[in-house]
Amino acid sequence: MSRRAWLVIGGAVVLVAAGLGAWTWSRAEPGGELRTGTYTATVRGTNVDGAPFEARGELVVSAPGQELPYKWCLKVGLPAGDPKPGAIWFGSHGACFGAGRVSPVITWRRSGAEHVLVPLNPPPSVRESLNSFYATSVPMAEANQPDGGAVRFRADGDTLTGTIDLTGVAMGNAKRGAYTATFTAYRS
Question: What's this model's pTM, rounded to 2 decimal places?
Answer without folding.
Answer: 0.81
